[in-house]
Specification:
Layout (H helix, E strand, L loop, with lengths): L1 H10 L2 H15 L11 H12 L2 H16 L9 H14 L2
Length: 94
């Protein structure tokens, strides 16, 4: 969990941390409003600690580290955003 928080604190904007909380909430079937904390980093810590198991935390930390190393957005795309992007690209296909 500390890897997620450390990378978030060093590399993520407030918006990215908020989107990551939302992504985790969606993946775990919880309401984003239940993430407790005074700021997004504290809320992210609560979510990572209480909503994810060890394996999920390990995989998410790896994902974020790879994305940061590549200079890409460290927040996974939501399933809805991915569907929307595919639909848009499909409609542009010849």
């Amino acid at each position: 969990m500390e890897d997620i928080i450390r990378v978030a604190a060093l590399t993520m904007s407030e918006d990215q941390a908020d989107r990551l909380i939302g992504w985790i909430a969606l993946r775990t079937g919880r309401s984003k409003a239940l993430a407790r904390g005074d700021d997004n980093l504290a809320r992210l810590r609560h979510v990572a600690e209480n909503w994810l198991d060890d394996d999920q935390r390990r995989r998410l930390a790896g994902w974020i580290a790879r994305k940061v190393a590549l200079g890409e957005d460290p927040v996974p795309a939501s399933p809805g955003a991915m569907r929307h992007a595919r639909s848009a690209s499909d409609s542009l296909s010849p």
